[in-house]
Specification:
This protein is an all-beta fold. It has one domain: Thrombin, subunit H, CATH 2.40.10. It is built from no helices and 6 strands. Strand 2 and strand 3 form a beta hairpin. The radius of gyration is 14 Å and the shape is globular. The model has no long low-confidence stretch (mean pLDDT 87).
Length: 101
């Protein structure tokens, strides 16, 4: 299917709005946020605190429908920004490996 725009990414981003649970490597403390977009390579989510770039997280994304399976992965934080709407920090992360449930 030809694209109507000049997409420079290897994977198309899909806009979503679903919960994410994540924890930093070596931590037992789980935190929550909201995923805003997903692709075959990574994701962008909103967290309430700033996370260090180059840190690793274990994430579980639980879609709010039964048709889409949950995503359980280890990711690397590659970008952090404060969103304009003041709702936390935008965290850009690249999927490093998929994990078993």
């Amino acid at each position: 299917m030809p694209r109507e725009y000049d997409e420079k990414r290897d994977f198309i981003r899909v806009e979503v709005d679903c919960p994410i649970v994540f924890r930093a490597d070596g931590s037992t403390e789980a935190e929550t946020g909201k995923v805003r977009n997903l692709s075959g390579r990574g994701m962008m989510f909103i967290a309430q605190r700033e996370l260090p770039v180059e840190s690793y997280l274990e994430v579980v994304v639980q879609p709010e429908n039964d048709l889409t399976p949950p995503l359980h992965a280890r990711v690397r934080v590659v970008r952090v920004a404060r969103p304009r709407r003041g709702e936390g920090f935008e965290i850009g992360a690249v999927i490093q490996e998929m994990l078993d449930e």
